[in-house]
Amino acid sequence: MKLFYLGPEGSFSHQAAGLSMRNRSSAIEYIPKVPLENVVKSLCAEGADAVAIIPYYNYLEGLVQESLDLIYENQVYIVGSQRVPIIFCLGGYERGLEQTGISSHPKALAQCSQYLNQYYPNIPHVEVSSTTEGARIVGERRSGFAVVSKEGLLKYELPLIKEDIGNIKHGKTNFTDFFLLARQDISQYHEKTDYFTMIAVTPYIDRVGLLQEILAQVSFYDLNLAKIHSRPAIDEVGNLGVEPQMFYLEIMCHKDNEDFKHCVDALEYKFTPKNSHLSAVRILGSYPACS
Predict the structure, then answer these.
(1) Same domain as 127, residue 153
(2) 204 shares its domain with 281
(3) How many CB atoms lie within 10 A of CB 276?
(4) 33 within 8 A of 11, measured Cβ to Cβ
(5) Which stretches of 40-169 are assigned E, i.e. beta strand?
(6) What does the alpha-carbon distance between residue 54 and residue 56 come to, in Å, rounded to a whole number?
(7) Per-residue model confidence as pLDDT tens digits over 94-149
(8) Do the record's keywords include Amino-acid biosynthesis (predicted)?
(9) Do 39 and 178 belong together in one domain?
C-alpha cells in the first residue's frame, strides 16, 4: 500500500502517517509530497488501495480550510483520523545566532512565540518551507537555531537546546488532527466506537437566517455538532444568480445513523434547487474519533 503525506521526512505529517498505520501488518510505502495539493492529487492518480494523510485541525491555529476544500474538490473520502501531539524543540548552534537567526515554518514559529519572545527577543526569525527544512539548513551551516520536532533534530543531528517550547493555551498543549483519505469509502463501522461524520452543505439560496435553518435541522434530529466552518461556495453558482456560502459540518455520529440520514434528507429537501442536478449535501466521510 502507498501512503502519501505532506513531506519532507521527519515532519509531523510523517509522524501521523506512521501512527495511523501502526496496527497494519501489510507493507506500507510512505511517499512524501509537497505542497498539500500534491498529496491529494497523488492519491487520485493511484489505485484503490492507496491512501493519503493530511492535517485537518490544529489546536492553536484552528481548521485547515485548504484540506477540507481539497477533499471536497477531488471527491475523496475521509476514512480515518489521527491525533499527533505537537511538541516543538529548539536545537542548533549558538555560533552566528544573531546573524543566521531561528529557522522554521512560519506556523511553528508562531506556535512557539511565547518561549522565543521571552528568551530570544532580539533574534530574527527565518521562515522556510517546513520545520525539517529549517533543521536541514541549520545542520548544513552549523550555525543558528531551528524549531523542529525531536525526530527532526535527530535526523539532522542537531544539539538539543530546549524541549517542548510550544505555546500553552487554556492549560492545554498543542496538537494537530489529521484525516486519512482514500479514493473509495473503505471505512468500517465498529460498535462501541465514537464516530464523527463530515458533511458539506451548500444551500443554493440566500436569505436571512440561513445558517440558523441548517442548525435547526441538526438540532431537530438530536445530533451533536462538533465543528462548523463556512466559506464561499466552491460549486457552480453563477447560473443561479446568487453567491451562496457553503458550510462544513462535523457531526458526532456515523453516517449510517438513522437520525443522521433523516437530517441529510431534510437538508436536501430544503436547500437543493428543484429540477436541478445539484445536491445541497455531500457526505465527505465517517471516521472514528481521533486517537
Answers:
(1) yes
(2) yes
(3) 11
(4) no
(5) 51-58, 62-63, 77-85, 89-93, 102-104, 125-127, 144-148, 160-163
(6) 6
(7) 999 999 999 999 999 999 999 999 999 999 999 998 899 999 999 999 999 999 99
(8) yes
(9) yes
